[in-house]
Amino acid sequence: SKTPECTELSKSEMREVDLGSGRALLIKEHGEFSAMGHKCPHYGAPLVKGVLSKGHVRCPWHGACFNIATGDIEDFPGLDSLPTFQVRVEKDKVIIRANKDLPSFLSSNVSAGPAGLVCAETLRQEGFTDRIVMCTMDRHPPYDRPKLSKSLESTAEQLRLRSMDFLQDHDIELLTEKEAVAIDVKTRSVTFEDGLRMEYRKLFIATGSKPRPMNYKGKDVRNVFHLRTPEDANSVARLANNKNAVIVGTSFVGMEVAAALTDKAHSVSVIGIETVPFKKALGEKVGKAIMKVGTHSGEIKLFRTRSTYLKEVVLKSGKVLRADVCVIGAGSVPATGFLKQSGIHMDSKGFITVNKMMQTNADGVFAGGDMVIFPFPPRNNKKVNIPHWQMAHVHGRVAALSMMGRATEIKTVPYFWSAMFGKTIRYAGYGDGFDDVIIQGDLDELRFVAFYTRSEEVVAVASMNYDPIVSRVAEVLGSGKTIKKRDVE
Ligand SMILES: Cc1cc2nc3c(=O)[nH]c(=O)nc-3n(C[C@H](O)[C@H](O)[C@H](O)COP(=O)(O)OP(=O)(O)OC[C@H]3O[C@@H](n4cnc5c(N)ncnc54)[C@H](O)[C@@H]3O)c2cc1C
Ligand code: FES
Predict the structure, then answer these.
(1) Gap between the Cα atoms of 200 and 58, Å rounded
(2) How far is CA 79 from CA 24, 154, 161, 162, 391, in A?
(3) What is the DSSP letter of 63?
(4) Which one of 68, 222, 269, 387 is separated from 200 by 20 to 30 angstroms, measured CA to CA?
(5) Core vs surface per residue 159-182: b (16+ CB within 10 A) or e
(6) In a domain, 398, yes or no
(7) What whole-number distance in Å separates Cα of residue 10 and Cα of residue 33?
(8) Domain range holding 68?
(9) CATH of the domain at 454
(10) Phi first, then psi: what are they for 369, rounded to 5°?
């Protein structure tokens, strides 16, 4: 074994070690040794570069957390927990005992996907034995939606979060292309577009969001996309090849697509109402720094089409942009229209309101993910909407435990990421209403960390090329501590 001498490691340290047939992460915390898988099951980040603190390791890339004793995933994103290995110390040597066929990841324990999938999987992991039916209007089983705008050519198969075999093995029924059109909480039933009616004892609604409706003519053209499915992304990549692409909206999705197309398309034009993308989320300085695609500020007047194809986008200013393909990334709204008559309580914007256990006002009905507002402890339980991939996982898990009468509260730090031009911006916390930004590092070089403060407190952090600072801050915020502005300054 090539493991180190036990005194080689400081009191709290992680080290990747070669076991011959694979690698493991050897951890020493407060003098105690443990070992587990070395790669994050989400996108494979080397956990040795993450943050070790209080019995868990937080991934440097998107903040997933793993218990060092059990390998269990304690915060998301990601589907799987990690394998753990026996460790003992003999004559100052650390001995790690692992199977020769070292598994890279271990399925089950607490696994995840978007809200609905995590809910279903958590129910099974926690011993729920009744029928579980997962219904989606998508054509495909749950897939990695964030990759749609970053890797346009990925197929549904490549993006799939779980195989059909996995779902079958765990007795999770999946009905695809099943659009729910009504829910009756009195008879406890869901009606689908094709007329099917299903009764439930417990219901979890996680229908996510849909593109914000926009006011323009020519909606039924065939080369305009909203990027909701792998087919949308694949079509955009194909149609943009050496052609002119127009992106409407400077949202993260819009800008990610623009970045992904710059190498492929003849031209990429971005149209935004804001002059600086992400100004509201990240502040003007950071927004400007990461804006590598020039944007046309303005609003669309009309889409000029020939038969069923968009040809030109005309702005209110009179400017005309040739468009062989157009992607609309102008934000989203909750996909809750079908619940209007259901009696399930929603706010004026259509977000379902839930309590800290993800329960709605209707008996046996739970909701989570992009389409809810939920009480957020760091803001005195004010109800907020946090439409992140990671948060949807958390909601799914909390809802499942509530459904089983094992109420648990949300304990997480919101974590978001976006990738453009091969670089990733990471973000943790909840920066809504920040009043100042403290930046360290070099914005021009895109190597920086930005602390978002509200009054005297750091409420969020963003970084590029500065790992693992965002996970480190998430770790501090997650432990319930506050970071003061003066600490950062
Ligand atoms: C292109 C793109 C890129 C993104 N990139 C990132 C990123 O980099 N990082 C990040 O943190 N977040 C990102 N997001 C946001 C992230 O994908 C969402 O926060 C997350 O998917 C929300 O999960 P959810 O389970 O609430 O809903 P969704 O993932 O939206 O899932 C909703 C499900 O409900 C189904 N559904 C909707 N209405 C009905 C109905 N009436 N009947 C039946 N089924 C229905 C849908 O078909 C879908 O299967 C991105 C989103 C998009 C679109
Ligand atoms: S790679 Fe670890 S959380 Fe994404």
Answers:
(1) 37
(2) 19, 19, 8, 9, 13
(3) -
(4) 387
(5) bbbbeeebbeebebebeeebebee
(6) yes
(7) 11
(8) 6-97
(9) 3.30.390.30
(10) 90, -155
Same domain, 448 and 391: no
In-domain check, residue 411: no
32 and 169 co-located in one domain: no
Whole-number Å distance between alpha carbons of 285 and 430? 18
Distance 355 CA to ligand 2 centre (A): 28
218 domain-assigned: no
Choose which residue among 340, 370, 371, 418 to substitute to test ligand 1 binding: the one with the highest number of ligand atoms within 8 A of its C-beta. 370
Q: What is the distance in A from the centroid of ligand 2 to the CA of 147?
A: 13
Give the ligand with the smallest distance to the CA of 64: 2
In the chain, how long is the greatest CA-to-CA distance? 80
Cα–Cα dist 142/45, whole Å: 22
Which amino acid residue places its CA nearest to atom 36 of ligand 1?
207
C-alpha span between 56 and 66 (Å, rounded): 5
3-state secondary structure at position 198:
strand
**Sign of the Cα pseudo-torsion (73, 352, 233, 319, in order):** negative
Residue written as token pair 């040794």: 33
Pick the last residue of a domain from 68, 97, 126: 97
Each residue's pLDDT tens digit, 179-200: 999 999 999 999 999 999 999 9
Tokens of 354: 């839930």
Pocket test for ligand 1, best of 207, 328, 470 (most atoms within 8 A of CB): 207
With CA atoms as reference, report the closest residue to 109 among 170, 20, 187, 191: 170
Length of the chain: 489
- List, for residues 224-278, the tens digit of each pLDDT value: 999 999 999 999 999 999 999 999 988 999 999 999 999 899 999 999 888 788 8
